[in-house]
Amino acid sequence: MEAGEDFGPWLARQLKLADMTQTELAQAVEVTRAAVSAWITGRAAPRPETIERIAAALNTDLATVHTRTTDTQAGLPVGWYHRPGHADGGRELGNAAAFAFDADVSVLARETCQNSLDERLADNGQPVRVRYTLHELTGETLARFREAIQWDDLFPHYEAAATQEQKVGRVIDAGLRDMYEHDRLVLLRVDDYNAAGLTGDDYEDGRFAAVVRRQLDSHKSGTSAGGSYGLGKATLWATSRLGLVLMNSTLSEPHEGRTERRLIGRLDLPWRQVHGKPWAGPAWLGRPDPDSPGAAVARSWWADEENVEALHLKRESGEPGTSFLIVGAHDVASLADDSPAPDGDEGEDNDSIQRMHRRLVRALGKNFWAAMTGGGDQLPLLEASVRTLRNGDVLLAEERVDPTATQPSRTRALKAFLDGTTVEQLTEAGQVAAVTVPLNLPARGSGRASLGEHRAVLLVTDAEDADEGKSNRVVAMRGNRMTVRDVAVPGLPLSVNPFQAVLLAGEAAGQRAPLAAEAEKFLRAAEPPEHNKWGQTEELTLTYSPSAYRRIAAFTRETNAAIKELVARPKKRPKAGGGRLAPKLTVGAGRKKPRRLSAATLPVLEELDAQVLDGGAWQVIGEVRIPAGGHTWRLVPVAKFDVRSGPRPTVAWAQLVGVDNCQVVDGALRFEEARTATFRGVTDPTTHAVRTSLSGLVVELRTGEGESLS
Question: What is the pTM assigned to this prediction?
Answer without folding.
Answer: 0.71
